Amino acid sequence: MTHALDLLQRVWGYPNFRGDQHAIVDQVIGGGDAVVLMPTGGGKSLCYQVPALARPGTGVVISPLIALMHDQVDALDQLGVRAAYLNSTLDPERRREVEQAYLAGELDLLYLAPERLQATVPLLQRGKIALFAIDEAHCVSQWGHDFRPDYLQLGVLGELWPEVPRIALTATATLQTRSEIVERLGLHDAARFVSSFDRPNIQYRIVPKDRARDALLKFIKQEHAGDAGIVYCLSRKSVEQTAEYLRDRGIEALPYHAGLPAEVRAANQSRFLREDSIVMCATIAFGMGIDKPDVRFVAHLDLPKSVEGYYQETGRAGRDGEPSTAWLAYGLQDVVQLSRMIDQGEGDEFHKRQQRLHLDAMLALCETAGCRRQMLLAYFGEESAPCGNCDNCIQPPETWDGTVPAQKLLSTIVRLDRERGRSYGAGAVIDVLLGKRTDRVVQGRHDELTTFGIGNELDEAGWRSVARQLLAQRFMESVGEYGVLAVTALGAEVLAGRAPVTLRKDLERRAVRSTRRAATAAAVDELQPDQLARFEQLREWRREMAKAQGVPAYVVFNDSTLRELAVERPSTLGELAGISGVGRSKLEHYGDEVLEVLAGVG
């Protein structure tokens, strides 16, 4: 490992490997295969980049996103690593240049999109390959949230190049998905490295959906003013409306979804990566592989379809290890809408049953009165203690005996079905409980039911909370095209008085802050006045450098390196070389200018 450690220090400027990186790099350099599960921000890229430089030949990286390829190549170029990509954005001349560089052995790393693999195999066979890295390997799972059919062909790599080590990497995978990765990629003999899925710097927070955009605006302005963030929405229309809503209220928000012209998507993504305070409103089409380290929050205005998807999306916050927030607004209509999407979606009954299980797990996470992080990690097979840094740990929710209200609501569903001959959604059921004589109630003679008006102990929001939690706990279900309610076998036990129901109170929660969240700005706030002046001057210099080169600012130096420079204030190139994140190439390119900036600030 001496050579690998030397590469790490010389090229990347890091003193040591972290966690499992040392063992993974050793495995691949030695010619062995590896399956790596490591959380976002854990340093997966180094696990194949270092071996690619240490082994003879070119490391070939299969990556699903063009934007990620561009960012990785830009970052490697800053480090003096010879890297390139082959994808649909290249003109024929540039493609020939990259192919010739590969054949001449002049590339350390070559990035490919999975859909280009088949066409590129003849080229790859004519060159020397150091390793194959399959990034975002969970895309091979047909039951996963990011399935890519082109990933199914990647098993051929082991057949065509049995002597070349392969490393499959992902930031998220259930036990089922891990098995699929091994099976479909033919990695049965690979060493498996499973790091903790915990992202302790992320504070998980789930709030009842009530005027969700207003709540989002308040959250951003009170806790993340001026921060970069991502807001996920379920539909394209909601994406555009949310971006417009935020812009009208002084927040620089941009839309991103598959229905926008490609040039608009590219321009918006570029601004998000290169500017400091952009909020991207997007569908889940945005985000996988986004390498921006200083995303301070990820918000969901709609319920994710699975815990795995939720973990993957929230993991785009705080890649730099600094405190960040995962905020989700969740309501009854989310449950009804996702249930309807499953019922009406493609696939056989087995596939739909899998989707319902995913949704059930997501609902359980939303409704738990316990530690959210503990439950999230348990989903991935990892045991943990309560975290102290989720909303339920910081402000424990109250629970109450909801058996009688549950019986009232379930009884109303049954009576509407039996006595009026049809099923209804939650709105109609709640109107009956509250004794509202709406046109629908009068025309349907719902006011003649024995449950009419028996629910005045709760208001409409309270009943919607009860309905949402009964759905989450499977006492009833939403079925069919119109999302009508039906009592389940579990619900029948409640009606018979054989099963109690415990519900959590929905509170108008105060802003939940933790010592970790308060520490977001603390790393900068704790700088002495002279150190802060140097830090700000370095940030301005970095901004100019990045703009001149057309790369994101963090590609030049990340914030933690700038803070260390501001505190240590090196005055020679030798001292500068001792700063974490300053490798040989960056020392040569920026060393004199950095020293000049530091010398010019008191």
Automatic annotation (TrEMBL):
Entry's Gene Ontology BP terms: DNA recombination; DNA repair; DNA replication; SOS response
Keywords noted in UniProt: ATP-binding, DNA damage, DNA recombination, DNA repair, DNA-binding, Helicase, Hydrolase, Isomerase, Metal-binding, Nucleotide-binding, Zinc
Domain of life, per lineage: Bacteria
EC number: 5.6.2.4
GO terms of molecular function: 3'-5' DNA helicase activity; ATP binding; DNA binding; four-way junction helicase activity; hydrolase activity; metal ion binding
Top EC group: isomerase
CDD domains according to UniProt: DEXHc_RecQ, SF2_C_RecQ
Reactions it catalyzes: Couples ATP hydrolysis with the unwinding of duplex DNA by translocating in the 3'-5' direction
Signal peptide, first to last residue: none
Helicase C-terminal domain location: 212-363
Protein name: DNA helicase RecQ
